[in-house]
Amino acid sequence: MHSPTSPSAQSTGLPRVSGARASGELAALGPGLLVMDVDSTLIEQEVIELIAARAGTRERVAEVTARAMRGELDFAASLRERVATLAGVPETVFAEVLEEVELTPGARELIDALHARGCRVGVVSGGFEEVVCPLANSLGIDHVAANRLEVADGVLTGRVLGRIVDRQEKIRCLHAWAQADGVPMTRTVALGDGANDLGMIAEAGLGVAFCAKPVVTEAAPAAVHVRDLTAVLDLL
């Protein structure tokens, strides 16, 4: 399944990338840290929708997700609303969904190219650790932040445990990881497709909208218009 995002560059006549390119220290030394969203960015799907399919609530969840990504709803509140519909789904769903996840074309190549340049890579996800962490480990990703679903007696309770990875948490992770890696903010890159990514996109040395919702493409300094993550290298 492919999540509804911007049309392909070919269908709109857009170039692969547009907007700002790396400049200053970022251009001279290269990126030191790239942080990206997961659902509809690193991967083609929205994980919560894959889980909701097992609960029979996929259509409802997809509609709320779309509104949240357009910036029409508070992300944390909308996440709690969507997660509540998952109550009763067996925890075996995590392994099933992990098998369904499709990497966005160029994902592995982008990560390998960044690592070859000495750049660290992090993912910040409004999705769930139970799926994101194994995926990140398989790709050699250096930093991971995602939400965690509560499980009791082998089934999902419909609640989120601990903090929620929302717009502010994504900003916090970007700064914390840059500091931990000894990377100045001028050498950071942030990449995402939804309104909850706008904060980190604004804070990074170069913020990139990836096949994003219009509100994100309009605000981001740079944009990728093709579903090929190696296009990010064109900006660097």
TrEMBL record:
Q: Please indicate which superkingdom the organism of origin belongs to.
A: Bacteria
Q: Name one Pfam family in it.
A: HAD
Spell out the reaction equation it catalyses: O-phospho-D-serine + H2O = D-serine + phosphate; O-phospho-L-serine + H2O = L-serine + phosphate
Reported EC number(s) for this entry are 3.1.3.3
Q: Which InterPro entries match?
A: HAD-like_SerB (IPR050582), HAD-like_sf (IPR036412), HAD_sf (IPR023214), PSP (IPR004469)
Enumerate the cofactors the protein uses. Answer: Mg(2+)
Keywords annotated in UniProt: Amino-acid biosynthesis, Hydrolase, Magnesium, Metal-binding, Serine biosynthesis
Q: Its family?
A: Belongs to the HAD-like hydrolase superfamily. SerB family.
Name assigned to this protein: phosphoserine phosphatase
Q: Which organism is it from?
A: Actinomyces ruminis
